[in-house]
């Protein structure tokens, strides 16, 4: 790398805009053909300000793409059984094509039990064990949105994955684990790191592709990025800071996602695209 090297930015905002435009066209086509507009149900427990903002943002994007949204706000005192009932009712409601349970749902609720109440054909956020299974087996189904968005970004920038060393830092069921499975499906050699990993920097130094999915500001230092590596920063920490130290990493990486404007917008774009896909599948055969 020359001393003045600067990585190319992976523009998630631009790619997400194009995905949402294509999604809006598909949504309009379904509405016109069947008389039914695709509909996403958003479920929010409590009033955590970040979660409220995320849900508002997702609903606003839905509206722009011609997707209806139905919001169900539940009090923080909601029990697991009550939340499961709500999600089960939405799973059976023919007017609803996709379901988003905003997470984390907060203490006192069994989040996994809640996720599993979402019918697989409406799991447009890709959070159920069914979706993880179909994704891992390469079968039709919905992917977890952030991993799906990351794979689209890699594809958009022509990143070759076959035979490459991919290091995923983080192993959560909705982000780290599934993105590793998607990279594996494209023949990358995948290493997962987590809070118990010994010598994280040494492993990151070997990576052709680094996916940071932790939630620790600037955990990955530029000095540990292999020259020419592709760096995907899914982390989002207070103050618009990612999990990668952007200023130092960009002097060594070939491609890097900015925070914000990298992975974040892609997550919502995939959510909308999968909602319209779900509507297309559920409205198949309907004529308006
Ligand atoms: P999470 O459920 O808290 O998982 C964090 C993972 O990081 C865990 O696997 C944990 O390991 C690992 N970890 C924690 N400290 C570590 C350390 N010092 N070294 C190595 N690994 C460590 O978080 P998440 O839901 O996956 O989210 C991760 C980040 O992505 C957050 O910043 C979140 O805001 C962001 N995010 C962004 C989007 C988006 O749309 N851009 C979407 C979802 C999440 P253990 O398993 O050992 O505990």
UniProtKB/TrEMBL annotation:
It comes from the Bacteria. It holds the Pfam family THF_DHG_CYH. Residues 10-125 form the Tetrahydrofolate dehydrogenase/cyclohydrolase catalytic domain. Signal peptide: none annotated. SUPFAM superfamilies: Aminoacid dehydrogenase-like, N-terminal domain, NAD(P)-binding Rossmann-fold domains. GO terms for molecular function: methenyltetrahydrofolate cyclohydrolase activity; methylenetetrahydrofolate dehydrogenase (NADP+) activity. Gene3D superfamilies: Leucine Dehydrogenase, chain A, domain 1 (3.40.50.10860), NAD(P)-binding Rossmann-like Domain (3.40.50.720). Pathway: One-carbon metabolism; tetrahydrofolate interconversion. GO terms for cellular component: cytosol. InterPro entries: Aminoacid_DH-like_N_sf (IPR046346), NAD(P)-bd_dom_sf (IPR036291), THF_DH/CycHdrlase (IPR000672), THF_DH/CycHdrlase_cat_dom (IPR020630), THF_DH/CycHdrlase_CS (IPR020867), THF_DH/CycHdrlase_NAD-bd_dom (IPR020631). NADP(+) binds at residues 170-172. Keywords: Amino-acid biosynthesis, Histidine biosynthesis, Hydrolase, Methionine biosynthesis, Multifunctional enzyme, NADP, One-carbon metabolism, Oxidoreductase, Purine biosynthesis. Its EC number is 1.5.1.5, 3.5.4.9. It catalyses: (6R)-5,10-methenyltetrahydrofolate + H2O = (6R)-10-formyltetrahydrofolate + H(+); (6R)-5,10-methylene-5,6,7,8-tetrahydrofolate + NADP(+) = (6R)-5,10-methenyltetrahydrofolate + NADPH. GO terms for biological process: L-histidine biosynthetic process; methionine biosynthetic process; purine nucleotide biosynthetic process; tetrahydrofolate interconversion. Residues 144-282 form the Tetrahydrofolate dehydrogenase/cyclohydrolase NAD(P)-binding domain. Belongs to the tetrahydrofolate dehydrogenase/cyclohydrolase family. Homodimer. Catalyzes the oxidation of 5,10-methylenetetrahydrofolate to 5,10-methenyltetrahydrofolate and then the hydrolysis of 5,10-methenyltetrahydrofolate to 10-formyltetrahydrofolate. This is Bifunctional protein FolD. The lineage of its organism: Bacteria, Bacillati, Actinomycetota, Actinomycetes, Kitasatosporales.
């Amino acid at each position: 790398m020359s001393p003045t090297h600067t990585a190319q930015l992976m523009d998630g905002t631009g790619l997400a805009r194009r995905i949402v435009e294509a999604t809006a066209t598909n949504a309009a086509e379904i509405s016109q053909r069947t008389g039914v507009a695709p509909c996403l149900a958003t479920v929010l427990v409590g009033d955590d300000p970040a979660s409220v903002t995320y849900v508002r943002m997702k609903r606003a994007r839905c509206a722009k793409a011609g997707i209806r949204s139905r919001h169900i706000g539940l009090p923080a005192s909601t029990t697991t059984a009550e939340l499961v009932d709500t999600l089960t009712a939405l799973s059976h409601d023919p007017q609803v094509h996709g379901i988003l349970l905003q997470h984390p749902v907060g203490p006192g609720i069994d989040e996994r039990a809640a996720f599993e109440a979402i019918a697989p054909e409406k799991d447009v956020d890709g959070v159920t064990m069914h979706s993880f299974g179909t994704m891992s087996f390469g079968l039709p189904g919905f992917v977890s949105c952030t991993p799906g968005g990351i794979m689209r970004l890699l594809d958009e920038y022509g990143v070759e994955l076959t035979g490459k060393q991919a290091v995923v830092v983080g192993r959560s069921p909705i982000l780290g684990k599934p993105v590793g499975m998607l990279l594996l499906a494209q023949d990358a050699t995948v290493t997962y790191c987590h809070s118990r990993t010994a010598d994280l920097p040494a492993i990151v130094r070997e990576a052709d592709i680094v996916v940071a999915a932790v939630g620790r500001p600037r955990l990955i230092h530029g000095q540990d990025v292999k020259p020419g590596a592709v760096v995907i920063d899914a982390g989002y920490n207070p103050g618009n800071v990612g999990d990668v130290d952007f200023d130092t990493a960009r002097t060594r990486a070939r491609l890097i996602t900015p925070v914000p404007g990298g992975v974040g917008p892609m997550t919502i774009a995939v959510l909308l695209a999968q909602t319209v896909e779900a509507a297309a599948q559920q409205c198949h055969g309907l004529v308006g």
